[in-house]
C-alpha cells in the first residue's frame, strides 16, 4: 500500500486476472475498448502486458482449463 506500484504491476494484473477467472465477470470500471460481454460468455484466456522499472516489459497468457 506504500510507494508506487510500477514494480508490482505484473502481480496486481495477475491477481485481477485470477479474480476474473473465479467470478467470470469484469467490473464495468476496468478500462477496456472491448464491448461489454454478455453474462453467458465464459472467459477462457487472458493476456497480461505489464511494464516495470527500467523499461522492462513482460507478457503472459493465462488459460483456464
How would you describe this protein?
The structure is a single chain. The chain has about 60 residues and is α+β, with helices and mostly antiparallel strands. The chain has one domain (about 10-65). The chain is built from one helix and two strands. It has one helix at about 10-25; strands at about 45-50, 55-65. It has a two-stranded antiparallel ribbon with strand order 1-2. The radius of gyration is 13 Å and the shape is elongated.
| Overall residue-averaged pLDDT value | 79
Strand order, largest beta sheet: 1-2
Beta-strand residue fraction: 15-25%
- Roughly how much helix do the residues carry, as a percent range? 10-25%
Distance between the amino and carboxyl termini: 32 Å
Instruction: Give the domain tally.
Output: 1
Structural class designation: alpha+beta
Instruction: Report the principal-axis shape.
Output: elongated
Flag low-confidence runs.
Answer: none
What's the number of extended β-strand segments?
2
